User: Which sequence fits this backbone?
């Protein structure tokens, strides 16, 4: 949860942006934060919006990257692939802040970032990637998709090791942030657009 006072950032574009990133960084660390589980939107193969809740696994403010875990066989992976428009929505009621982030998403299956997320996953978390058939498959009975040997008990590291081949990460490179802050005295809304040439955020106030 943020510790900054409202007065410190309410009328300051730079501090409001700092506050937005702090909420995300805190949300990654704090499982109870609403920003721990943002809504991630992409566009499906028919051009329709497609949203899902995902756990925020890493926030890299310097490189404007958010990182999520996914099953390689998931529908969103096919939708996003190596590059796709992505939008992330979160609202923190106690911080009275809505963040709408947009940018470019990509799926990675190999490399240090994927290895790091895999290593940080719990055995229960890793077990999810053993579901068979693939997530989203139509089946003729209710199922977790897990083999009965894997249900109802903590899985061993050996048992979950094969799940690594179904594991991937989604990297969202943020290019635009819209910050909305709800205040009794009057709401505030700001937009930040990343300027690649300048290597800086362009910022402007909007009417809420
Ligand atoms: C609290 C919560 C956290 C979730 N975390 C993830 C996650 O980190 N990664 C993920 O792929 N799906 C996660 N899901 C499931 C997705 O919301 C979604 O149902 C699933 O990924 C299938 O989406 P897709 O068909 O668009 O690929 C989570 C769901 C909930 C309710």
Assistant:
């Amino acid at each position: 949860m943020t510790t900054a006072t409202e007065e410190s950032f309410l009328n300051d574009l730079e501090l409001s942006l700092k506050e937005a990133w702090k909420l995300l960084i805190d949300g990654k660390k704090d499982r109870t934060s609403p920003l721990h589980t943002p809504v991630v939107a992409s566009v499906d193969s028919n051009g329709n919006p497609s949203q899902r809740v995902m756990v925020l696994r890493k926030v890299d403010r310097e490189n404007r990257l958010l990182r999520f875990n996914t099953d390689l066989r998931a529908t969103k992976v096919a939708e996003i692939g190596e590059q796709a428009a992505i939008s992330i929505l979160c609202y923190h009621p106690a911080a009275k802040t809505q963040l709408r982030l947009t940018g470019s998403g990509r799926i990675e299956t190999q490399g240090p970032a994927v290895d790091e997320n895999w290593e940080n996953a719990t055995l229960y978390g890793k077990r999810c990637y053993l579901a068979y058939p693939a997530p989203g498959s139509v089946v003729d009975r209710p199922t977790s998709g897990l083999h009965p040997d894997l249900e109802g008990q903590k899985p061993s590291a050996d048992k979950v090791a094969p799940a690594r081949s179904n594991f991937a990460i989604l990297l969202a490179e943020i290019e635009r942030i819209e910050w909305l802050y709800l205040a009794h005295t009057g709401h505030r809304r700001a937009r930040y657009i990343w300027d690649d040439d300048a290597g800086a955020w362009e910022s402007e106030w909007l009417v809420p």
Summary: DSSP finds six helices and nine strands in the chain. Residues 89 and 100 are 5 Å apart (CA to CA). The longest helix spans residues 13-29. The beta strands are 39-43, 49-53, 56-60, 65-71, 84-92, 97-108, 167-181, 188-195, 200-206.
